[in-house]
Structures are given as structure tokens and as C-alpha cells.
Amino acid sequence: MTAYTELSAHFSRASALSNAVGILQWDSDVMMPKGAVGTRAESLALLRVLHHGLVTDPRVGDWLSRAETDNGLGEWERANLREIHRLWTVQTALPSDLVEATSRAVSACEMAWRKARAEADFASLLPLLEEVLRLQREIGAAKGEKLGLSPYDALLNDYEPGGRSARIDALFDDLAAFLPAFTDKVLDIQARRPKTAPPEGPFPVEAQRALGLEMMKVVGFDFERGRLDVSTHPFCGGADDDVRITTRYNESDFSSALMGVLHETGHALYEQGRPAAYLSQPVGQARSMSVHESQSLLMEMQACRSREFIAFAAPRMRTAFGGAGPAWETDAVWRHYTTVKRGFIRVDADEVTYPAHVILRYRLEKALIAGDMALADLPGAWAEGMKSLLGVVPPDDRLGCLQDIHWPSGGWGYFPTYTLGAMTAAQLFDAACTADTDILPGIARGDFGPLLGWLRTHVHAHGSRLETDALLTQATGRPLDAGVFKAHLERRYGGDQE
């Protein structure tokens, strides 16, 4: 066997472990009885240690050295070596006992978060979250020393390879300067319109689920390789060829769950479209979290909040819930789906205010990792940031700093990818619609084939063959340009649009 063949087989085994972790983690979040927390934590910790052991196996370094001199390798194989080298470099920075301790701390903190969130009790979560944060600082320091990065940038690098906080600071500072005045402008425009009440519930959960499943099918979800369930916090997970997405239902507002389903379906379509020949290899994985978020936000925000999609979906919404009257007319439904309002919850936020939620979390997690802020001060800092960026103050921690699972689950450095993803989504959708003029008419008739085909060709099928900037430049003709995102917001929300 050649060195490359050895590496490929080795990382196929690592992929199998990752798939097992993915299904066990999904089950923990969706199905597992509370009494199984301890046993499940032990199982996940062991599997993660075994996975870490495979990735950091001393033979990997030798195989890499020999494979990188093999002139017979093709483009995909060389890209796979690059990705393996990146993964190996990062993971060898971590001792196995740190990986195991982190897995245990995260499992305990995630379960405690569910109870703390329900009871708006940050104090009860604080000791467990302190331990997760302590370990994340350790991980950031260890990886940062190996990569020559700050601890925060080392954590960010796990989700956004090559991403740096200095670039994000500039992008986010620009948005933070733009959004408050633009939000005021949009709210003023909305206030001048004739008032139309939204559709009135209740909207039975089973009817919401049926509508969600119907729309998943419309946009292209493969139910032979995935499923929809319910969880406290919507997510997309699972394993290769077994993509699990979740949502949560509110019987007084069906739009939140439906758009949540479409958002997670965007993630799932990316997972289902990755290159089949390389699914078990690092080069076959999704490029970065900003690209992943671009796929969910492109589907939810760009495509499924468009006038074209609402013209198709509104009659089906009326049928699903037996609706009648002005609130169910297409234009009224579109207004409802593009309403801008200041709110407390990130996952329920509209396109205009959503980036402010992300900017807040990004600034807070950077300060916490750097040790510039004590974790005990998080609720107060959160409230102050919400007031400054969004003009609202959450009444309790359930609607404040306890709303997201990311920090309890060890996802530090993840949050900025949401808004980077929104910018990327706007740029990709603009390029797609320019390249194929049948995309918007297709959406209007419930045919997502042209859009999904373009995404399969220009994003999904590449896996991690290209770096993020190269992928975006190849697909759109230019690197990430925040101006495209701002122009999209101006077009959709900045005019009277009567």
C-alpha cells in the first residue's frame, strides 16, 4: 500500500467513529431519557478519545511526509493531504486527557443547560459553564501555540479554517455602524404601511410538521438519507448519508418552525450533496461553517422569504391550517415573513436584526476566552450589549444569555460564522440568479431544481477541495464582499415596496 492509501484507509476509520458520535449526539439531544446522561457521557467521551487517537496516531506524520512527495497524486488527493495535514496539526496540539475532560464537561453542561434555560437560572449553570470555558481556554492556548495564533483565533480556525478575528472585527464593526440606523429606517417604513394582522392560530403541531415535510420535499431534501425531529434547539446533525434535522414548534406561530425547518434543510442539502467518492475523507467534508451557514441562510432567507416562494407557498399554508381572509393573501403572508422587529431570540430574528445578535455573541466570547470578562458578569454584559445593538433588554436569562446551546456544548469561535454565512449567502444567490434566469421563476412554481443544481455544481460537490475564498471567488467571480449583503437588505427592506 502507498502512503496515501494508508492515510485514506486510516481516515475512513476515523470517519466511522465520527459518524457514531454524530448519531449518539443527535440521540442525546432528541430522544435520550434523562436517566441515561451519565452512561451516554461515558460512551461519547470514549469514542472521542478513540477518534483523537486515530487522528494523532504517530504514523500519520510519517505517511504525510511520504505521500506529499508522491507525484502521481491527482488534484483531489493533494487537497485531501492538505486537509489531513491541517487536521493532524491541530489535533496533535491536544493531549488525549484534555479531549476526554472536555467531552465529559460538555455532556454535563449541555444537560444542565436545558434545565437552567427552562428555569431562567444562570447561577445554576455557572459552575459547569466555568469548567467548559476553562477547558476551551486550554484548548485555544494549546492550538494557538502550535499554529502561531491567539487562543480565540485558534478556536475560530476549527470552524473557519484560515479565518481571523482581525478581519471579522472590521466586517462586524462596519455592520454594527450600519445596522442601527438602517433598522430604524425599516421600522419607520413598516409603521407607515396599512396594518395587516398575521394569521391567527392555534396551529396544531401535526399540521405544522406535515407542512414542514412538504416544503422539505419541495426544496430537495432526500428522505431516504435523512429525517426531521424535535429538539430544544434546532440543529442539523447525524452522520454521512443519515442527516438528522430538528425544529421546535409554537402553536401560536407556525412561521418560526417552518422557517427553522427550511433553514436546517439548507444545511442538510449541503451534507447530502457532498462528493460521494470522498465522504469518509477530510477533503469530502463541508468547506467551513461560514459556507455551511451560507447554505442554510441562502435557502431560508434568500430563497424562501422571496416573493416568488411565498407566492407558491401561501396557498399551501392556507390549506394546511384551513386559513381564510386577508391575513392569508400572498402579499400579507410575504409581509409577515419579512417583518423586521427588535427581539430577544437569535433564532427567531429577521435578516436585518440577526447580525446584531451575532456581533454581540462574538464580542462576548472573545472577551471571555481572553479573560477580559468574568463569566459571572455575562448576564449583565449581555443585557448591556442587547440594549446598545438592538435597543431591547431581555427580562430574564432564558431570553438572554441562556438561549443558545453553543457555549455549553463547547462551540466557542462558532458564532461569527453565522453572519459571515449571511454575507456569503447573499453573494452566492446573486451569482446563481444572474447565471441562471430560471431560478426565481422556478422557485415561484415550486421547482428548486435550477437553484439546487447550481449549488450542487458550485458549492456542494467541491467538499473541501478549495479553500473558502477560492470557492467563493470561483462561484461568484470575487471574494467575500459585504456590499452585496447590504445591497440585498436595501432592496428587500429599504423601500416602500407598495
Automatic annotation (TrEMBL):
Its EC number is 3.4.17.19. This is Metal-dependent carboxypeptidase. Broad specificity carboxypetidase that releases amino acids sequentially from the C-terminus, including neutral, aromatic, polar and basic residues. InterPro entries: Peptidase_M32_Taq (IPR001333). It comes from the Bacteria. Keywords: Carboxypeptidase, Hydrolase, Metal-binding, Metalloprotease, Protease. It holds the Pfam family Peptidase_M32. One of its GO terms (molecular function) is carboxypeptidase activity. Belongs to the peptidase M32 family. It catalyses: Release of a C-terminal amino acid with broad specificity, except for -Pro. It comes from Xanthobacter agilis. It is an enzyme of class 3 (hydrolase).
